[in-house]
Amino acid sequence: MTKLPLNRLSAETSPYLLQHADNPVHWQPWDMRALAMARDENRPILLSIGYSACHWCHVMAHESFEDSAVAAVMNRLFVNIKVDREERPDLDQIYQAAHQILTQRSGGWPLTMFLTPDGTPFFGGTYFPKEARYGLPGFADLCERVAEAFADRQGDIDVQNAELRRVLAGTTPKSEATAVGFNKGPLEAAEKLLAAGFDSKNGGFGSAPKFPHPTDLAFLLSRSAPESRQMALTTLTRMCEGGVYDQIGGGFCRYSTDDHWEIPHFEKMLYDNGPLLALCADAWKQTSDTTYARVCEETTAWVMREMQDKDGGYYSSLDADSEGEEGKYYVWDRSEIERVLTPQESALVIRHWGFDRPPNFEGRHWHAKVVGVLGEEEAPLLASAREKLFAAREKRIRPARDEKVLTSWNALMIEGMAHAARVFERDDWLESAQRAMDFIRRTMWKDGRLLATAKDGRAHLDAYLDDHAFLLAAVLELMQAEFRPCDLAFATELADSLLARFEDRDAGGFFFTAHDHEKLIHRPKTGHDNATPAGNGVAAFALQRLGHILGRSVFLKAAERTLIMLWPQIVRSSAGYSSTLQALEEALTPTEIIILRGPADKLVDWQQKLGANPSRMILALPNGLAGLPATLNKPESGQVNAWVCRGVICLAPTENLVDLL
Question: What is the value of pTM for the model shown?
Answer without folding.
Answer: 0.96
